[in-house]
Specification:
Residues 19-87 form the HTH merR-type domain. This is MerR family transcriptional regulator. Helix content is 57%, strand content 6%. It is mainly alpha-helical. The relative contact order is 0.11.
């Protein structure tokens, strides 16, 4: 029996599992494969490669790409959109870490200084 971490059913819930081909990812986002390649060139998303060398995207990467597309559709340059999405993602991660630290310390409200 394969280890639990490699069972297909576990991959269904894994946001980082590279389940989507480039064509399917582009279709889901309503964009082109070229747009996804551009996001890769700007280092916003780095797809994993299948054994055959094909790009594979995770649900997390698709959410990131969808946010970039939203900004581009609003007139933001691709390079700037990628930077904005990276900063938004870093901010969200910092907030998550802060919440975890507060929960561990028993602090429910952030401290303010007068």
């Amino acid at each position: 029996m394969p280890p639990a971490s490699s069972r297909p059913v576990d991959n269904l819930d894994d946001d980082d599992y590279p389940a989507y081909t480039m064509g399917r990812a582009a279709e889901m986002l309503g964009t082109t494969p070229a747009f996804l390649r551009t996001l890769g060139e700007h280092r916003l998303i780095t797809p994993l490669r299948s054994e055959g060398g094909h790009r594979r995207y995770s649900r997390y990467q698709l959410r990131i790409a969808a946010r970039a597309r939203e900004l581009v559709d609003q007139g933001t340059a691709v390079e700037a959109a990628c930077r904005i999405v990276i900063l938004e993602d870093q901010l969200e991660e910092a907030r998550r870490i802060n919440e975890q630290l507060r929960a561990r310390s028993g602090e429910s409200q952030p401290r303010t200084t007068a």
